[in-house]
Amino acid sequence: MRKYLVFIFMMLLTTLSFAGFKEDYNNLMQSLQQKQKTIKTREQYQKFLDEMKKQMNDLISKYDVNKMNDEEKLLAAQLYNSVNDGKKALATLKLIKKPAALDQDKLNLTKAVAYFELNDYSNASKYLDMVSKTSSDYARNAFNFGYMLLGKNKNKEAIAFLEKAVNAPKLDPMTAYYAYDSLSLAYQQVGNIDKAKETIKNALNSKVLPDQIKNRMKPRLTQLDTVGKQAPEITGVDTWINTKGVKLSDLKGKVVVLDFFAPWCPPCRAAMPHLEKLYAQLKDKGLVVISITSYYGTFSDGKQKIPNLKPEEELKYIKNFLKERNIEYPVAILKDKSIYKAYGVSGIPHFVVIDKEGKISKVFVGFSDGNDPLITYIKSLLK
């Protein structure tokens, strides 16, 4: 949802030069743009998105669409989309008297977003395909639609949009990175590991992605190679927390989630309350969550940073960190990180889902929010 709102915001910013816009609209867009530049934390980012949606909703409520000219009606429809009201967006578009005189890319993209809001993915695809393929909005929204569908576990529909994104002729590096990575995950979700690998290989051969991003993606092939294989035991543990120890071979018949994390990692911290909540809900149905971290010689949790720590000192901070977050599932603190290589861990958070037969079922890298594909997938296994 965050990426979705931001892409709509970017699209709205490109319309500032339209004639007939209300002065308060221009002021709002410029104010939001300035606020976006000051965001430093995940919490500030979420607050910004909530405020943006509220202010857009307040703004559109002031408009009388019947008194607008056609360009203003198009903008009004975009604003309705930004507050997730596709029905009003389409109704507003029908009031336009001379649609042929408008920017056709913006008109068709607005229709595509409105239909997507209404879960009409066929029409969303139809109108998206009417947008110029050389427009950056085409690639961004193709990715955006695919990413949203991936979060809803609608993997086949997600694949269709994500394929559009990675094949778009105008694709910026960051959108390309997320699009390829999401497409690979979508293929993994439907059990097509070969296509998942092919997608990563295509990314590594892409002229759009810089070498720095390609280097981040290379380990994905190693990770995909682990899928379907027996999960290696967790070795090199110095200390277990919330348990005396865990052997994966003893957990057959259960769904196990391995969470490779570190307290200093913001997305790792963001994932923890969702994992704890899911664990509390589904542990009686057979869910096991095991978090894995190691000593770094320092401790940081977003509130404090303590350097030059001995392992026993760092352990105290880690225990307190987990206690503050009410983490009840097992946590392994490693003294030897060789298990990272066995699981293809190159960045965190890194999640490995192990099926009831003890085999690696899916691998997820990164975390967004409670609608993250990881959460959706775990729930689907334990319905």
TrEMBL record:
Keywords: Coiled coil, Cytochrome c-type biogenesis, Disulfide bond, Redox-active center, Signal. One of its GO terms (biological process) is cytochrome complex assembly. CDD domains: TlpA_like_family. The keyword Plastid does not apply. It is found in: Cell envelope. Residues 225-383 form the Thioredoxin domain. Residues 22-62 form a coiled coil. GO terms for molecular function: oxidoreductase activity. This is Thioredoxin domain-containing protein.
